[in-house]
Amino acid sequence: MTTDHRFLRALRRESVDMTPIWIMRQAGRYLPEYRATRARAGSFLALAQTPELACEVTLQPLERFPLDAAILFSDILTVPDAMGLGLHFVEGEGPKFSHPLRSAAAIDALGVPDPETSLRYVMDAVRLIRRELNDRAPLIGFAGSSWTLACYMIEGEGSSSFSRAKALALQDAPLMHRLLDTLARSVGAYLAAQAAAGAQALMVFDTWGGLLSPAMFREFSLRWLGAIVAHVREKAPGVPIILFSKGANAHLEGLADTGCTALGVDWTIDIADARARVGDRVALQGNLDPAVLAASPDAIRAQARAVLDGIGAHPGHVFNLGHGITPDIDPEHVAVLVDAVHEMSRRG
Amino acid sequence: MTTDHRFLRALRRESVDMTPIWIMRQAGRYLPEYRATRARAGSFLALAQTPELACEVTLQPLERFPLDAAILFSDILTVPDAMGLGLHFVEGEGPKFSHPLRSAAAIDALGVPDPETSLRYVMDAVRLIRRELNDRAPLIGFAGSSWTLACYMIEGEGSSSFSRAKALALQDAPLMHRLLDTLARSVGAYLAAQAAAGAQALMVFDTWGGLLSPAMFREFSLRWLGAIVAHVREKAPGVPIILFSKGANAHLEGLADTGCTALGVDWTIDIADARARVGDRVALQGNLDPAVLAASPDAIRAQARAVLDGIGAHPGHVFNLGHGITPDIDPEHVAVLVDAVHEMSRRG
């Protein structure tokens, strides 16, 4: 009876007994037990690539808090890694690729990875987590958007401007679209495989869409988010899809038009305004400022109340932060938030 | 006849022979001559605090490009430094304060610095630059917004979330407002003093306003931007004031309502939409994505054309980037942009 989970009901905009809540990056460095497992693994990549360890950290926040969903512990850059770019992490500097895309030939040589072979460790993690979860909460799988993956693949690492990726898009749009298409097909296959392995909802992180001008967002990010949704709908019909394009609140209508199930919303828009703009087409997930968790329990409750009041009696809301939880947060404050959301939203 | 400069005419929404252009951070690391002067100064702070050197780097971009305005070389954190917080720069880590604000007593002990004594080096730089400019182009003075300065003063350094500052605002709003008020009066006096020393336009950088939720933006950023405008209008009537609240396009109407002269606009909104929303109340400054300068000359011209087409025949546009130019840009690409904007916008 997994369809009775309030998280899945809320995504379908059905009535719920109380508002479901999960927290982006809930399996993360703010938890001492996560840091212990991470130390045992030796590296972030070893943690993500060892199904037993990925399963362990995925479940840790659910042992502590009555969260309404688990999210696979992994990284959006597993897909380009499977495409041969050589992902590694440099301490204090974040992700890097050994073979960034620096030529049309390199882009045109990319293939669509078979998830069950080159990303087998992710599929094994999904299967293991589903077994260990034993239906306590639904499991969310995820991937990066075409644009966001292309940014990293072209730059070879993180960037505050991704000017190399943007320059390629402006100078050779057909080449950029070939790359984004290959990525959309890869991400579509990857997400569908996660669903086949047991993921009950799928989320696409368009982390860098908000760095684009409106015209570039529509052409290079939104268009390919729509393609990903279409690929997943074809291969895994019925599985809810959440799109999260950070900093792209100007484009909520276009994002809702992709046919996704729900939109993640960051905290720079009133959730009532977001609801008014997308109407009943999609559920909404968000949108508390992660920094609120650094404030006092009273302030956390007041700010959570403001988000719940913004949604009011409308169905189709999954409570979350507007971005990932940061390492400086006291886990006790997360407990305050989860309890407050459940208590304040209890129906009947 | 300084009032005939096309930059000042555009701010007043008067007709111009061609669209004026200047570039945020135009005196910066992308210029080899800047890097040479910076090396000679020994440190960023020595460069900013020595009027002759600040004058030298302020004028450098105007020697290379036919820019329509100069902007004082300085730093927004000079004001908190003058308040006693002990500004210093750690190589590769950015600005830090020796005495961040960590108590109500520290906040309530802050006074309003007298610009002509504790910020004398800035006033001397303004006077020297005006003399050396000899009316080739108007000079812009600037300061940080109350909210943005408070962020740094509370954290003690830069941050991706400024959660400490936000937590204080949520937990003790009256205390935060006392700090923001002291800062608004300090910034107002500082900007008015820059105008008295010769600055012909004034710009307020609200670098971190866009990190706030709408409710917090209105209460903690926008309200005090309005206070700064009022202070400057009282002390330096007639001097144009440009407000730039990065990432806060959702609030353009409220920003225009402050009584400022112009709004800086980043590239995540079509400038035609920005114009439609603020009407004829203010001029607009922007809004090319800085990353466009990393692309080819043809792409730079096409993207500049798109901004100019977005404004169309409306008066009151100052061309600029939507954020500061980055160190990786080829100065030749800046020349392409400046020439393109002038040529493509030439009237009659």
Layout: helices, strands, pairs:
The structure is a homodimer of 348-residue chains.
Chain A: H1 6-11, H2 32-41, H3 44-49, H4 51-64, E1 70-71, H5 78-85, E2 87-90, E3 94-97, H6 104-108, H7 115-118, H8 120-133, E4 139-144, H9 146-155, H10 163-171, H11 173-197, E5 201-206, H12 214-235, E6 241-245, H13 252-256, E7 262-264, H14 271-278, E8 283-288, H15 297-311, E9 317-321, H16 331-344
Parallel strand pairs in A: 1-4, 4-5, 5-6, 6-7, 7-8, 8-9
Antiparallel strand pairs in A: 2-3
> What is the typical, i.e. mean, pLDDT of chain A?
96
Q: What is the subunit arrangement here?
A: homodimer
Give the strand order of the largest sheet of chain A, numbering strands 1, 2, ... along the chain: 1-4-5-6-7-8-9
Indicate the structural class of chain A: alpha/beta
Question: What is the radius of gyration of chain A computed over CA atoms, rounded to a whole number of angstroms?
Answer: 19 Å
The number of helical runs of chain A is 16
The strand count of chain A comes to 9
Helix content of chain A: 40-55%
User: Sheet bearing the most strands of chain A, described?
Assistant: 7 strands, parallel
Question: Which percent band covers the strand fraction of chain A?
Answer: 5-15%
Overall outline of chain A: globular
